[in-house]
Amino acid sequence: MKTVWLQRLLKWYASIQNFMRGRYGRFDQLNKTLLVIALIGILLNPWLPFQLGRILALFLFLLLYGRFFSKKIYPRSNENQTYIRNIEKMKHFFSRKKQTTSNQQTYIFFSCPNCQQKLRAPKGKGTIRVTCSKCHQKFEQKV
């Protein structure tokens, strides 16, 4: 009698495994994002008109379940890879903006008196002797 519940549990587990065979079944980055946005929609529902948060959350949950139980594995994987690439582009765009502002803080930019080529040098070095990379003229610049 004690092993009946274990046998039923194993049978139920096998049926779940059989159901999930050949399905995408991954909780990837895109599914995580859909879940977080759906939960935010549920939390913001009291302040949104026309139950907009609930409708948004329902739509996103249906999309999440559709992706999770889909038998089209490669298109779901490609969707996730495209999402990751787009997120990386956005991160790179914003980090590049931050990097240019840090360049302005650590370098001084000036132009060659002969050819007007833009040059840079680290701040706080005093008066340095600079050779232009374009016309090779040597001059002194205070940085």
From TrEMBL:
The chain crosses the membrane at residues 30-48, 54-70. The lineage of its organism: Bacteria, Bacillati, Bacillota, Bacilli, Lactobacillales. It comes from Enterococcus phoeniculicola ATCC BAA-412. The keyword Transmembrane applies. This is Zn-finger containing protein. It comes from the Bacteria. Keywords: Membrane, Transmembrane, Transmembrane helix.
